[in-house]
Design goal:
The complex is a heterodimer of chains A (80) and B (763). Chain A has helices at residues 16-27, 52-66; strands at residues 2-9, 40-45, 72-79. By secondary structure, chain A is of the alpha+beta class. Chain A has one domain: Mth169, Chain: A (2-Layer Sandwich), CATH 3.30.1280. With 763 residues, chain B is of the alpha+beta class. Helix content of chain B is 35%, strand content 22%. The radius of gyration of chain B is 27 Å and the shape is globular. The chains are: A alpha+beta (80), B alpha+beta (763).
Chain lengths: 80, 763
């Protein structure tokens, strides 16, 4: 299975990098909304099946290691 | 009765103020009655939030202000060097004269609770906040230090995680903004488990004519909002900092703010440029805890005027924020500036140049009210002075905790005299304790050399930096200290010893003390035992500062430092800034080969509350070491006299770990580890060996010299007891005590001392 985990700051948390990219877009006259969010993607493969137990383990991994649950949210995609 | 305000444009804020809401905003019923009395009506939801942050301990010092009145705020001789130019409590930070029309501005502030929830961001924004307090005054920040307290990292993975995060957060913010971190102090003790202390200090320099005030004056002058946009960061953070940490704190998540040091650097440069324009800035204040609320209320109160702002004009990072959220947001890197009417273009041009928002959000108005409108509808209408200055001041009940008498009554005789095997084993054990061990793992993460002014790297008794002031140079030293075990056993003496320890550290570096900033970290003031600690510690600080004529120029009070298990040991962190007259007076603790070691002060003879008792006997008990203010004054004067006369090569005071630990640290030089032979035969035979070698206590400094006779005769002339206690070796690295079998290889001791923290943190 291929797993892609997307991590980004929670909606209410300031993202300095996103803000900087937003300002740069505006100074290039790119017609973007200035509220840019820069997150990260973690990709990996694992053996096994997409079961509820597996998703539970994956959630734990995301909470304990891949994201900082105090300030970040995550979501993931699983493909075969 | 005053007429009620119209309904808030945000429907969710038009709710009845219930007793539950009053309680959840931290008010006692009589405090709520006072609010109604001030307003002449029921407050709106937004006003309740405004009062709650303004009257939290963090902003109003409601449980400590009456006690703080005992602090000396000025020098006894108002014309002496170190004259206080801006006093504690007047502005964001105090300012002290350092001669030649220059001044220093410095302050320490805590970010304990945010760091407990999210160590990296909590510590980083703590640094950002204290830097803003300094440049708001018109000063250019020159250096940072910090005072940290954690649980025992040898046994607690949580404390290691917190230490790692806090140190990374401090270094992130300080390194990005380019201000050197020149030192600090750190203790590890299990009372801080789950409730670490993160106290950050910033010191800046300015000319006397550059001092800026945070007052809103001049009817019609525009009020500007500058810096980063407002988001839902840290909602109610100041109120949050005044609550105990509970199991649900990690659910209290929005209260974590995220800092942006690059934004702050722009803000710093823009503000300093703005303040250099003659007559442009009327008043300026940072938006720290309680953000927009605190800055508008305090500037209006100081200016004895009214202020009116419209929230639609406030730059917002998120959509749909209501007045409660905007007023209480703690978004970082924002300031409030009041400029002279008619010169709006000048401020806007300067901020546009630095890529920052500068938006007029209101103006100074007649009367005495702080008026906030949202979509044109008034949502807050409060007399500013009463909001800012009339917070209820309380004196809680104080009760001496039973542990104090128990510890005081502990008899050292109950402990078997130590045999040589124990005395031999104790030295490496103490040097490997994280509190005594080398802190390089921590400070090497900080950029301590940026701006190229750092004279002494962290690791010696005090941090020393060269300040470039126009065409002049001055040398400033800064020392931090507070021994929590002493304060737990006797808060009065413990706090006084923290002041003494800083003075001794400064003297050992060649510096004369000028002014003090303190960070009072205590438990819940509504518990009589906790309040007793607070009250007695403040008394100890006040008496020590009065005796040594060191004015208190500001600081911070952090209460409710309790985790579910226990309150922290009381920790009145003290930082004292001093000046070194000439660069050649800068002194370190590192002795050279072939020098005599002379002990100035009494022989160590007390075991109470020592690290030796804690580590080798598992006892955190005993009376706090005795001291006499007058004797210590003589010792400090003598040390400085010897240093200015060039008679001393190195100096180090005896603190945690006792005489032997201090001697060992003097041998761990920059280039090589040297040995020493100690001869302690002059010590009275009545002193127990363990107390002599490992006992602690203020009032003792070891100096290294090539002219022991001159040092001894100078001590005699001053009336300070002194004795030659040994010599450093010409070669090799053996540390031994003659007349005993005690002997160590200083190089091996050093290895344990250096590896202690890295081996825990890198594992």
């Amino acid at each position: 299975m291929n797993i892609r985990v997307f991590v980004n700051y929670k909606k209410n948390v300031l993202d300095p990098q996103g803000e900087a990219v937003g300002r740069a877009m505006q100074s290039l006259n790119f017609p973007a909304h200035p509220h840019v969010r820069v997150g990260k993607t973690i990709e990996f493969t694992v053996d096994g099946q997409d079961t509820p137990e597996f998703r539970k383990t994956l959630d734990k991994l995301c909470n304990d290691l891949l994201s900082n649950p105090v300030i970040e949210d995550y979501r993931y995609e699983i493909s075969q | 009765m005053s007429a009620p305000l119209p309904p808030n444009p945000a429907k969710e804020l038009n709710v009845a103020i219930t007793p539950e809401l009053i309680k959840s905003h931290g008010f006692q019923p009589d405090e709520y009655d006072l609010i109604k009395d001030i307003l002449g009506r029921e407050p709106t939801m937004t006003e309740l939030g405004v009062f709650s942050v303004m009257w939290s301990e963090h902003c109003s010092y409601k449980n400590s202000r009456l006690l703080l009145r005992g602090f000396p705020m000025e020098k006894k001789d108002p014309n002496a060097l170190g004259k206080v130019l801006v006093r504690a409590g007047e502005e964001n930070a105090g300012v002290i004269d350092i001669g030649d029309n220059w001044a220093i501005c410095f302050k320490i502030e805590s970010h304990n609770h945010p760091s407990a929830v999210e160590p990296f961001e909590g510590a980083a924004t703590g640094v950002g906040g204290i830097i803003r307090d300094i440049f708001t005054m018109g000063a250019r920040p020159a250096l940072l230090t910090n005072s940290l307290r954690f649980g025992d990292i040898r046994t607690s993975a949580q404390s290691r995680r917190l230490l790692r995060g806090v140190v990374a957060g401090i270094s992130h913010y300080g390194n990005c903004i380019g201000i050197p971190n020149v030192g600090g102090d750190i203790y590890f003790d299990k009372s801080y488990e789950g409730n670490p202390l993160v106290n950050a200090l910033c010191l800046g320099t300015l000319r006397h004519d550059q001092i800026k005030r945070g007052a809103a004056t001049g009817i019609g002058n525009p009020v500007y909002y500058v810096g980063a946009a407002t988001g839902r960061d840290g909602l109610g953070g100041a109120a949050f900092a005044s609550k105990e940490l509970s199991e649900t704190s990690s659910e209290d998540r929005p209260a974590v703010q995220k800092g942006d040091p690059f934004m702050e650097k722009l803000l710093l440069e823009a503000c300093l440029e703005l303040m250099e324009v003659p007559g442009l800035v009327v008043g300026i204040q940072d938006m720290g805890a309680a953000g927009l609320t605190c800055s508008t209320a305090e500037t209006a109160s100081r200016g004895s005027s009214g202020i009116q702002i419209e929230l639609d004009l406030v730059p917002q990072r998120e959509t749909g924020m209501n007045s409660y959220e905007i007023m209480l947001s703690e978004s970082q890197e924002r300031m409030l500036v009041i400029v002279t009417k008619g010169r709006e273009k000048e401020i806007e041009d300067i901020f546009a140049k630095w890529d920052l928002h500068a938006v007029q959000i209101g103006e100074v108005v007649e009367g005495d009210e702080m008026i906030v409108t949202h979509h044109g509808v008034p949502v807050v209408k409060i007399p500013a002075k009463r909001l800012a200055d009339d917070a209820p001041l309380c004196m809680q009940e104080a009760k001496e905790p039973a542990t104090i008498a128990q510890m005081r009554d502990w008899k050292p005789e109950s402990l078997q005299p130590a045999d040589e095997a124990l005395l031999q084993k104790a030295l490496p054990a103490l040097l490997n304790h994280p509190t005594i061990a080398q802190k390089r793992w921590i400070w090497q993460q900080y950029d301590h050399m940026v701006i190229a002014g750092t004279v002494l790297s962290p690791g010696s008794d005090a941090g020393v930096a060269r300040l470039r002031l126009g065409d002049k140079e001055k040398y400033v030293a800064i020392a931090n200290d507070c021994n929590n075990s002493y304060c737990k056993a006797d808060p009065y003496k413990g706090a006084a010893i923290a002041v003494i320890e800083c003075l001794q550290n400064l003297a050992c570096s060649g510096a004369r003390a000028l002014g003090l900033t303190d960070n009072l970290n205590f438990g819940n003031p509504y518990k009589p035992e906790s309040f007793y600690y607070l009250k007695e510690a403040i008394k100890g600080l006040a008496e020590a500062c009065t005796f040594y004529d060191i004015p208190v120029t500001g600081g911070n009070v952090s209460l409710y430092n309790e985790s579910p298990e226990l309150a922290i040991d009381p920790t009145p962190t003290v930082s004292i800034a001093g000046l070194i007259e000439k660069p050649e007076h800068v002194t370190t603790q590192w002795a050279g080969r072939g020098q005599s070691l002379v002990l100035l002060g009494d022989w160590p003879n007390e075991l109470g509350q020592s690290m030796y008792l804690q580590e080798l006997h598992d006892l955190k008990t005993g009376a706090v070491p005795a001291f006499e203010f007058g004797k210590i004054q003589k010792l400090i004067d003598l040390t400085l006299e010897l240093i200015t006369q060039g008679k001393v090569k190195a100096a180090h005071d005896i603190s945690e770990g006792g005489l032997l630990s201090s001697v060992a640290e003097m041998l761990f030089g920059h280039n090589e580890t040297i040995g020493a032979t100690l001869d302690l035969s002059q010590a009275p035979a009545s002193i127990r060996k363990d107390a002599l070698l490992y006992g602690e206590g203020p009032g003792r400094i070891i100096v290294a010299t090539t002219d022991a006779d001159a040092v001894l005769s100078a001590a005699r002339a001053k009336g300070v007891p002194a004795a030659k206690i040994g010599e450093t070796s010409a070669q090799g690295s053996e540390l031994k005590i003659s007349g005993t079998a005690l002997s160590w290889d200083a190089a091996a001791l050093r290895k344990g001392w250096e590896d202690a923290i890295p081996s825990l943190m890198n594992a």
